[in-house]
Amino acid sequence: MKLLLTNIKELLQVRENCPEKLSGAEMKELPTLKNAWVYLSQGVIEDYGTMDKLKEFQDFKTIDCTGKIVLPTWCDSHTHLVYAGNREQEFVDRINGLSYQEIADNGGGIVNSAKKLQQTSEEELYRQSAIRLEEIMRLGTGAIEIKSGYGLTVDAEMKMLRVAKKLAKEYPIDIKTTFLGAHAIPTEYKDNKDGYLDLLCNEMMPKVAEEKLAEYVDVFCEKGYFSVADMERVLEEGKKYNLIPKVHVNQFNSIGGIASAVKYNALSVDHLEVMTDEDIDALQNSDTMPVALPSCSYFLSIPYTPGRKMIDAGLPLALATDYNPGSTPSGNMNFVVATACIKMRLTPEEAINAATINGAYAMGLSHSHGSITKGKAANLIITKEIPSYGYLPYAFGSNLIDSVIINGSEVQ
Ligand SMILES: N=CN[C@@H](CCC(=O)O)C(=O)O
Ligand SMILES: [Zn+2]
């Protein structure tokens, strides 16, 4: 299918040569073309320009974008989209005064989701996850990372990753998968964390690698979960299978996970709600992308990642949803972008860069996603008629998306 989008009020994130990632002051720039067209063919962006220089094409469908803004689809580099059931009861428990940590200590939290997932068939898990995937595609997400970590047994971790891989096969959206066996200590190993890590390293990881179920490896490095030494053990093991680290660090405490992840050449460090000056220093001049998850801060009422401070210190920053049943039951990247502006003081330009180019980098998709560049995936959001792109985060509660194109086809 060939599509020609014409009369675009403003085409955002237009980059002839797109950098892999944007850092510090570079994030303030959002290159655009006003009164533009873009031509999509064979699933990629073939060409673009301004309406006064519209080229001639053959056999295409035209979409008139008068009054509308067009931008690359969101790149959501951190999700737990494959899960079973929900944790609505824990949400109510928190309203009634229990903390996220108290709920986890009482057998809720991640191990609660693991119990539900272990009891759910692969078909049912796929069905529930596909509904969420379809929803986020309609909300403008065109590439996504999905983690395991609600299985916590060999079989259930494999089941989660097989479901993620099946979604990748059945849907046009690009999906990257991450093995997060080290998400929590399962109840059976409550007093034997090393025994669980033995199982993870000696059985789970070799099987995941053998069936090519994951590109990345993740660890929840946090007090009460996995220490820096535990994380290093898992990342060291991951090296044997070329599993690249993308890790959960600094959600509640700064315990040295960032410096360690950088040492292991992590592609990203995610959460970062609690950041010391040493943590910021550790990220300087590294290839590791810091990823903020503002919807998680919103839902749990915990601090927001100090994104303003980090960008002002010259760091890059990506934004992602963290879509999961416990801390962020939302996969809406539009809300993430708005919340980053409202609560983290990112400018609309910085937030859009963080949710497109830098999000693509944080899942190894810089070459194919995140910008309007010839040859990149034909993944576009067409907005409703809006006054300017700053209106997207400003009118944070409105659905401003008219339609979404992924790999050159309109999402239904
Ligand atoms: N923090 C660790 N893991 C998930 C949430 C886990 C849960 O509560 O189910 C997160 O990224 O927020
Ligand atoms: Zn997460």
UniProtKB/TrEMBL annotation:
Protein name: Imidazolonepropionase
Keyword set, alphabetical order: Cytoplasm, Histidine metabolism, Hydrolase, Iron, Metal-binding, Zinc
Cofactor: binding details: Binds 1 zinc or iron ion per subunit.
Phylogenetic placement of the source organism: Bacteria, Pseudomonadati, Bacteroidota, Flavobacteriia, Flavobacteriales
Family: Belongs to the metallo-dependent hydrolases superfamily. HutI family.
CDD domains, alphabetized: Imidazolone-5PH (cd01296)
Organism for this UniProt entry: Aequorivita viscosa
Molecular function terms, GO-annotated: imidazolonepropionase activity; iron ion binding; zinc ion binding
Catalytic activities: 4-imidazolone-5-propanoate + H2O = N-formimidoyl-L-glutamate
